[in-house]
Write a structure and sequence with these properties.
With 763 residues, this protein is an alpha/beta fold. It folds into 4 domains: 28-167 and 296-353, Rossmann fold, CATH 3.40.50.450; 169-292, Rossmann fold; 382-513 and 656-677 and 684-689 and 696-714, Rossmann fold (3-Layer(aba) Sandwich), CATH 3.40.50; 527-647, Phosphofructokinase domain (Rossmann fold, 3-Layer(aba) Sandwich), CATH 3.40.50.460. The chain has 22 helices and 26 strands. The chain has a 7-stranded mixed beta sheet with strand order 15-14-13-16-17-22-23, sandwiched between helices. Strands 5-6-11-12 form a 4-stranded mixed beta sheet. A 4-stranded parallel beta sheet has the order 8-9-7-10, with helices on both faces. A hairpin with a 4-residue loop joins strand 24 and strand 25 (718-719). The radius of gyration is 27 Å and the shape is globular. GO terms for molecular function: 6-phosphofructokinase activity; AMP binding; ATP binding; fructose-6-phosphate binding; identical protein binding; metal ion binding; monosaccharide binding. One of its GO terms (biological process) is canonical glycolysis. It comes from Ursus maritimus (Polar bear).
């Protein structure tokens, strides 16, 4: 649980579109932590403290959670800007945490309220899971109506109703996948079966996504008990895999998994079954609290920072009549929901899980679709007599192979013959095409780069050869996985349809590039992995400066003219500045950064990120030389060009998950198009038959390339509008620069919806 507080006498001045504050009559704020803090909690602490101080408030830490609030005294301490300067990359929480039975009683809550009132605290920010947020029940809100409350959800289980992702979940997935990837090497060497138990007593999110991300053979979830006879079915699948010369088996089980008779399914039980029925050498690994620890991922740092700032804004806009709210994530948008309603809904779900009400279970895992990550051979349910080709185009991006694997298996399950095109459009023109089967893509999920090979060559000069290959191999549809070159290639193929009828087939692009610059999509496969590489590197660089002091680092990131990596990397790493093409800067901005005064504090370290194409004249070398010359006697300077290491490495859990889901959706679209034209000899000439599949907010949308042309800056190879630019002021504020911050789209509380079958889950 975290707490954040304001003096009642202080009223901010509000503007309709942006929020600005008068720095006078300063209020007081306070902060505390959850019983089991996940990674990313300190990023939220940092954001709340710095945003509070930025608007002229006093900010207090409440140590040891609700227990510290009840005990008062030295547990409530004023925070300052420098006290949170080096906590962004630290797991857990710096302000401690403890469970508190006293707070559940009226007397305990009165003591806590007294301690807050003594310090003029009337606004509270709570960061925690359902247990911490439950502490703020209706009785307390009614008795102390003057206490404005905002919650942020921190839980690795991702089990809180009202938000797509909770703080800590992505970091927990990183820990799980790191362990799974390490185990797979030893399992393959010794031909072993591994049963991995992950957390999730009520929620199987970690188990499902980790199974999908590592290509597990079987997964057990609390929400979806396996059908009767699962023991035999599982053993058959495992033995089939071994018969195809697969040397290992991975089984993921959530700690709360049960069968249809409401009996627990334990990891030891699964091990005994495999050993008894198949005689395989089997090991059990229980990850336990490893999942809660470690360095927070880039996603969690950014999420926590956004939620922390939004929570402060929500409190600033609150009145004594404003109900308690929780700041949540919907797609890539920050929203506010009624806290009490979200808590009650979460409690109802958990109660139902405890009572084992699975008669109307609505979670189904069709292993043939590739969504569960099963590496089992599933025969196609139909024969379409259609050939679907898959091609990678542009620079390599981590997660491409997961997308190819998903497309191949979904296509085979739909009855298509899947063809792999090697080395991009160049290989396409040369006829480097061959059939690819279910087993051929086994183990591809966790591999970086592009196994099919990829090149930046566009199809324009080889259209006739490509049309010939389309005709020769009877290609009925084309799935392109790639970045801006793939988008340009689609436009060229679309323009050539009138001349070459072979190109009149359904075509769809799945965005995959570290630059995240494909029009029509908020995210691209590979960008999250690159962002984590940048963040990890910045952490190491900052650590190297902890001993030398008085040193500024200039770090150059990739992205072309798109500043996504520099901006988001700066936010995740706690940079002092991030220079990008989308926001022009001049020598005065560089001087402001140089004079920022950080060397006069206890921090004595600077971190500046620069997008590789942000300016023709203000190059990395120029900024380095400027800082080196102007900083003589005060600090020295170093530069680092991260280069192609941002394109390498194993894909992050997000990119594996995103690549698998979006590619499967693309194949479903292709199958639908082919089914509609079956037996009609239809040529696909309409704009809606050649699209980019992207994610917008929380929806997967197919956008015709003809429509996206108007939204594209072709000279600089970026979309004309980019959602992440709204986060620029956030990074500046947290680095102590003057900026005005645009608040969430709606200042009002949004209703809590029960997600139906037709609504997509968070990626």
């Amino acid at each position: 649980m975290e707490a954040l507080c304001l003096l009642p006498s202080w009223q901010p001045r509000r503007l309709p579109c942006r929020v600005q504050w008068q720095r006078q009559n300063c209020p007081a704020w306070s902060l505390t932590a959850v019983p089991v803090p996940p990674a990313g909690m300190n990023a939220a602490v940092r954001a709340v403290v710095r945003m509070g101080i930025y608007v002229g408030a006093k900010v207090y830490f409440i140590y040891e959670g609700y227990q510290g609030m009840v005990d008062g005294g030295k547990n409530i301490v004023e925070a300052n800007w420098e006290s949170v300067s080096s906590i962004l990359q630290v797991g857990g929480t710096i302000i401690g945490s403890a469970r508190c039975k006293a707070f559940r009683t009226r007397e305990g809550r009165l003591k806590a309220a007294h301690n807050l009132v003594q310090r003029g605290i009337t606004n509270l920010c709570v960061i925690g899971g359902d247990g911490s947020l439950t502490g703020l029940n209706e009785e307390q809100v009614e008795q102390h109506a003057h206490l404005n409350v905002v919650g942020m959800v921190g839980s690795i289980d991702n089990d809180f109703c009202g938000t797509d992702m909770t703080i800590g979940t992505d970091s927990a997935l990183h820990r799980i996948i790191e362990v799974v990837d390490a185990i797979m090497t030893t399992a393959q060497s010794h031909q072993r079966t591994f049963v991995l138990e992950v957390m999730g007593r009520h929620c199987g999110y970690l188990a499902l996504v980790s199974a999908l991300a590592c290509g597990a053979d079987w997964v057990f979830l609390p929400e979806s008990p396996p059908e009767e006879g699962w023991q035999e079915n599982m053993c058959i699948k495992l033995s089939e895999n071994r018969a195809r010369k697969k040397r290992l088996n991975i089984i993921i089980v959530a700690e709360g998994a049960i069968d249809t008779q409401n009996k627990p399914i334990t990891s030891e039980q699964i091990k005994e079954l495999v050993v008894k029925q198949l005689g395989y050498d089997t090991r059990v690994t229980i990850l336990g609290h490893v999942q809660r620890g470690g360095t927070p991922s880039a996603f969690d740092r950014i999420l926590a920072s956004r939620m922390g700032v939004e929570a402060v804004v929500a409190l600033l806009q609150a009145t004594p009549e404003t109900p308690a709210c929780v700041v949540s994530l919907s797609g890539n948008q920050a929203v506010r929901l009624p806290l009490v309603e979200c808590v009650h809904m979460t409690q109802e779900v958990q109660k139902a899980m405890d009572e084992r009400r699975f008669k109307d279970a609505d979670v189904h895992l069709p292993c043939a679709c590739g969504m569960c990550g099963a590496d089992t051979a599933c025969p196609p349910t139909l024969q379409s007599n259609c050939n679907v080709a898959v091609i990678n185009v542009g620079a390599p991006a981590a997660g491409m192979n997961a997308a190819v694997r998903s497309a191949v298996r979904v296509g085979i399950a739909d009855g298509h013959k899947m063809l792999a095109i090697y080395d991009g459009f160049e290989g396409f023109a040369k006829g480097q095409i061959k059939e690819i089967g279910w087993g051929d893509v086994g183990g591809w999920t966790g591999q970086g780069g592009s196994i099919l090979g990829t090149k930046r060559t566009l199809p324009g000069k080889s259209l006739e050869d490509i049309a010939t290959q389309m005709r020769k191999h009877s290609i009925n549809a084309l799935l392109i996985i790639g970045g801006f070159e793939a988008y340009l290639g689609l436009l060229e193929l679309s323009a050539a349809r009138e001349k070459y009828e072979e190109l009149c087939v359904p075509m769809v692009q799945v965005p995959a590039t570290v630059s995240n610059n494909v029009p029509g999509s908020d995210f691209s496969i590979g960008a999250d992995t690159a962002l984590n590489t940048i963040t990890d590197t910045c952490d190491r660089i900052k650590q190297s400066a902890s001993g030398t002091k008085r040193r500024v680092f200039i770090i150059e990131t990739m992205g072309g003219y798109c500043g996504y990596l520099a901006n988001m990397g700066g936010l995740a790493a706690g940079a002092d500045a991030a220079y990008i093409f989308e926001e022009p800067f001049d020598i005065r901005d560089l001087q402001v950064c140089r004079r920022h005064g950080k060397m006069k504090t206890t921090i004595q370290r600077g971190l500046v990120l620069r997008n590789e194409s942000c300016s023709e004249n203000y190059t990395t070398d120029f900024i380095y030389q400027l800082y080196s010359e102007e900083g003589k006697g005060v600090f020295d300077c170093r530069k680092n060009v991260l280069g192609h290491m941002q394109q390498g490495g194993a894909p992050s859990p997000f990119d594996r998950n995103f690549g698998t889901k979006i590619s499967a959706r693309a194949m479903q679209w292709i199958s639908t198009k082919l089914k509609e034209a079956s037996g009609k000899g239809r040529r696909f000439m309409s704009d809606d038959s050649i699209c980019v599949l992207g994610i917008s907010k929380r929806n997967l949308l197919f956008r015709p390339v003809a429509q996206l042309r108007k939204e594209t800056d072709f000279e600089h190879r970026i979309p004309k509008e980019q959602w992440w630019l709204k986060l620029r002021p956030l990074m500046k504020i947290l680095a102590k620069y003057e900026a005005s911050y645009e608040v969430s789209d709606s200042h009002q509380l949004e209703p809590v919806h029960h997600r139906g079958h037709e609504e997509p889950a968070a990626i």
